[in-house]
Amino acid sequence: MEIKGKAAIVTGGSKGFGYGIASVLKKSGADVWISGRDATALESAAEALGVKTIQADVSNGKDWDKVFAEVTGATGGRLDILVNNAGAGVAIAPVHEQSDEAIISSININLTGAILGCRRAGLIMSRQNSGIIINISSVCALYAWPGWSVYTAAKAGLSKFGHGLYTELRPYGVRVTTITPSWGATEFGSAAKLSKQDTEIAKKCMQPEEMGKLVAEICAMPGHLVVPDITVQPMVQEIIPC
Question: Which residues contact residue 154 at a Cβ distance below 8 angstroms, ignoring those fewer than 6 apart?
Fold first, then answer.
């Protein structure tokens, strides 16, 4: 895919990996929209990156309708790239210590929201016989740590959903990729209280711009090739392959 001139949506695009993804896609010539719940953060990112913004909650179907209406209204009905990056730890604690509301919120933000976006993107991309959807999962989908069970369930679900979605959209020439990152130099580490991620370790983790370059490289691959899954992790983090 030639990225220049393509229409792209990046959810959770005002901070962290989303910011890096939006930045690289914009520099590559894409017409980029970022979405998120924090209007102030969105406007700040838009001013710095030169992208468009849409305030939206990925777990809300009506908000997704608003996002797609604005983008397709500006592009004549096209959408070429959807990056489902929005996510949140919500509550990192043993499941018996979490509230029902926190559990539901985690599943909605990390899994249901991406599915709602894919439903709408899949309809457009299948009609135009082209496009790519990239879902940002987590290494938690592959391994288990105490306190992360609900988040793990959502991200593992996102990974398997991506496999199924690929089989549905492949006949239409639409590609689906799941990126599974581990520690990143983003606000997520602080929000999730990852105490081991001090300043020096953060420098050795995946940087937002590096995630952006990875996304751009996957998008730019020849249309007849697809990367269904890719896992990336920093050498500084000890994960023993199994």
Answer: 106, 107, 109, 110, 111
Place of tokens 């719940």: 37
Give the chain's domains with CATH numbers: 7-232 (3.40.50.720)
Which residue in 207, 209, 215 sits closest to 185, CA to CA?
207
Q: Please tell me whether the overall predicted TM-score, pTM, comes out greater than 0.90 for this model.
A: yes
Tell me the CA end-to-end span of the chain in Å, nearest whole number.
34
CA distance 240 to 41: 37
Say which residues have a Cβ less than 8 Å from residue 140's Cβ, sequence separation at least 6.
Answer: 148, 151, 152, 155, 156
Could you give the angle at which helices 113-128 and 61-75 cross, rounded to 10 degrees?
A: 30
CA–CA separation, 152 vs 125, rounded Å?
29
- Residue 176 in tokens: 């689906």
Rounded mean pLDDT, 33-54: 97
Strand duo 7-11 + 229-232: pairing: unpaired
- Enzyme catalytic residues: 151
Least confident of 39-48, 187-196, 212-221: 187-196
Give the mean pLDDT of the chain.
93
